[in-house]
Design a protein that fits this description.
The protein contains six helices and eight strands. The protein is 33% helix and 23% strand. By secondary structure, the chain is of the alpha+beta class. Strand 1 and strand 2 form a beta hairpin. Helix 4 crosses helix 5. The strands form two sheets. The chain has a five-stranded antiparallel β-sheet. The chain has a three-stranded antiparallel β-sheet with strand order 2-1-8. The protein starts with a helix and ends in a 10-residue tail after the last helix.
Length: 207
């Protein structure tokens, strides 16, 4: 008993976990099986894995100007035999005043975009006016955040650039990630090599 307690004290002094050793991979596997489990350092590994998947997707870029918003997206051709015209898109129209570009798993994007279109049309039908851009983004991000909070679900592996216009705030550009966070930007890029696309770091707008 004395020898085992002494060995445990040595492990504690050296900052080594006696059960898992000094391998951070073993520790992360203990907490990444569910989205509802925080690691001891406050991380949600499943959300981080979803963001990592976005980093391997084709890039998309948005730039806000005084008289409009520019969206551009890269469609990666994985094979010479691929018919590019018949593959899923990276640019989508939500309604007459909102469009978006995506990076990540496009099947996940289709679910969220269909939801955004439904919400926008319900608002239009109820109030007889277009839905404010930020209000739509908030509802979609609330849905995305819910998939990081309840068991039996995985985060949506997709990030969005939303470009839109409303009478209150004019032209707007928003970015959202799998965690459900969003922000307004003057320019932003998502996807592969996104940091290289933004050679200067823009300041986020107050949302």
């Amino acid at each position: 008993l004395s020898s085992s307690s002494a060995a445990s004290d040595v492990y504690k002094r050296q900052g080594i976990n006696a059960e898992y050793g000094d391998q951070p991979e073993a520790m992360s596997r203990r907490y990444d099986s569910r989205t509802t489990i925080f690691s001891p350092d406050g991380r949600l590994y499943q959300v981080e894995y979803a963001m990592e998947a976005i980093g391997h997707a084709g890039a998309a870029l948005g730039v806000l100007a005084k008289d409009g918003v520019v969206l551009a997206a890269e469609k990666i051709v994985t094979s010479k035999l691929l018919e590019v015209e018949k593959t899923s898109e990276k640019m989508y129209k939500v309604d007459d005043f909102i469009a978006c570009a995506v990076a990540g798993i496009r099947a996940d994007a289709n679910i969220l975009i269909n939801r955004a279109r439904l919400v926008a049309q319900q608002y239009q039908y109820k109030y007889q006016e277009p839905m404010p851009v930020e209000q739509l983004i908030q509802q979609i991000c609330d849905l995305k955040q819910g998939y990081t909070q309840f068991g039996g679900m995985r985060p949506f592996g997709v990030s969005f650039l939303f470009a839109g216009y409303d009478e209150k705030l004019g032209y707007q550009l928003y970015q959202s990630d799998p965690s459900g966070n969003y922000g307004g930007w003057k320019a932003y890029a998502i996807g592969q090599n996104s940091t290289c696309l933004l050679y200067t770091s823009p300041s986020p707008r107050d949302s």
